Amino acid sequence: MPSALPLTVPDLLQARAERDPTRVAILDSREGSLTFADWQRDAQALARSLAGRGVRRGDRVALRYDDDWCGYAVAFCGVVAAGAAVIPVSVSLSPVQQHDLLRRVGVTAVLHQVGSPPPDGTWWSACGSDLTAAGTSAVTGEPDPPEPGDVAQIVCTSGSTGEPKDVAASHANLCHGQVLNPRPRRYAHSRTMVHAFPIGTNAGQMMLIEALTAAPTLLCAGRFDADRFCGLIARHGAGTVFLVPSMAVELLRSDAHRRHDLSCVRLLSSSAAALPPAAARGLTEAFPQAVLVNYYTSTEAVPAQISMIVDAERPEALGRPVSGHDLRITDAAGRQLPPGEVGEVWLRSDAPPRSYLGDPSGSATVFRDGWVRMGDLGRLDADGFLILVDRESDVIKSGALKVSTLRIEAALLEHPAVAEAAAVGVPHPVMGAVPAAVVRLDRPVDLDDVRDFLSTRLSRAELPVRLLVVDHLPRNATGKPVKPEIRRLLEPPARRHPPVSAPAAAVSDPFGRSFLATLTTDPAVTKESDDEHQ
């Protein structure tokens, strides 16, 4: 009989190892594989080794892994089986950032991938494979297993709009809604499910829980490469695919879907950011046999979420909750607003909530009575569907108007030459702020053509007064544009670096401002020559 009691992550692994011992749980990009029996055996061996080395229930252990998902999965479950909390450390962080994170959360130990040690510090470091190899640990102990209310993981948020936060989640939060032997298991239509989320992200952490509970084998593709990703899907006959919008855009622009047979895919899941309508249409064409589902949640809000099958009749809609009492739009004072009015988006679930580690004031602001403030502005349509307007911190206050960067980005991505786009507000002495955007092009185009294109899709207040063409957009590990860095790129050259060259075209603007199409400014992020863009 399925259990309705609060569970821990070790409970999930033990039940699966007993039920499906020889089934492959995880495949990774290093050609590694891990059965449930091996996962359970190695995790328990690691837990005993950690206990023997002095790790106690409530301690915090950092995991620094790159693409060794099998090793990471063992390390994660071994640490939590020892009663400690896991802090995944992204290898994309600089040594200074890693060192700051490890000190900030107060780690006891660092486990790391072979050849990928952490920055120097006062922690003892160990390779998970060494600790779990039979007979290599001189001292073992009896671990103190966790309770459902104990912290299981602490994930550093992306910091795409500001300073990152450390979000703590309990076992009860991660295991909310899970039962030990569900019938049927999720994604039972698939033998394999594929993702390319980096270790250290919330999306990656949720994939581990899926590996423990869902029906298919989890194939971890490593760093996203569109052609390789599509090749893995075809080779393994994957029925379920997880991605984020930036991956979707890259996949479609690469035409990789035309070089591989993707007819095996039945479910395509997009999350982490709003899916631009142009990308949604492209995915529907690229995966004709698949149902395309868009998920809306956040690191802070999980497991609260909204999802819906992407509907061409509602291209901007993100869905509506199962219960209308789990979503609300409020004004600044917290009063609920009626459909049609724009306000702050709040979500809730009946799961034990997450919190910000060491930040009670921040937790009090975001987590309130089971509700999670999403940091987004949105509205409900007449049928209760959520329409996202923008990140609250990204809305451009231009004169008396509020301009959505999401609308600008969606319009830019409709242009056939624009591969990537990110919009921000830049200071203006009269308007307060005005829109500007950074774009990556996949073929030469006259930027006047881009502006003319936008003028048919955006209002005058939404038209960017400056476009910067770059080789790549600064993005975080989950693919979201890093808005503070994009604002820095769009600063006037005198406030940043002396430009290499700055040919620009001034075009009449409805607000009497100049439309500056800067083709090359910072040599670190733009072309050395603008010839190919002329």
Structural features, described:
This protein is α/β, with parallel strands linked by helices and 534 residues long. Helices cover 26% and strands 24% of the residues. It is globular, with a radius of gyration of 24 Å. Strand 21 and strand 22 (401-403) form a beta hairpin. The chain folds into 4 domains: 1-181, 3-Layer(aba) Sandwich (Rossmann fold), CATH 3.40.50.12780; 185-296, Rossmann fold; 318-391, Luciferase, domain 3, CATH 2.30.38; 396-533, ANL, C-terminal domain (GMP Synthetase, Chain A, domain 3, 2-Layer Sandwich). The N and C termini lie far apart (68 Å). Helix 1 crosses helix 2, helix 2 packs across helix 3 (69-81) and helix 9 crosses helix 11. It is built from 15 helices and 27 strands. Residues 132-137 and 496-534 have low confidence and may be disordered. Strands 2-1-10-9-11-12-13-14 form an 8-stranded mixed sheet, sandwiched between helices. Residues 14-356 form the AMP-dependent synthetase/ligase domain. It comes from Actinoplanes regularis. GO terms for molecular function: acid-thiol ligase activity. Residues 408-480 form the AMP-binding enzyme C-terminal domain. Keywords: Ligase.
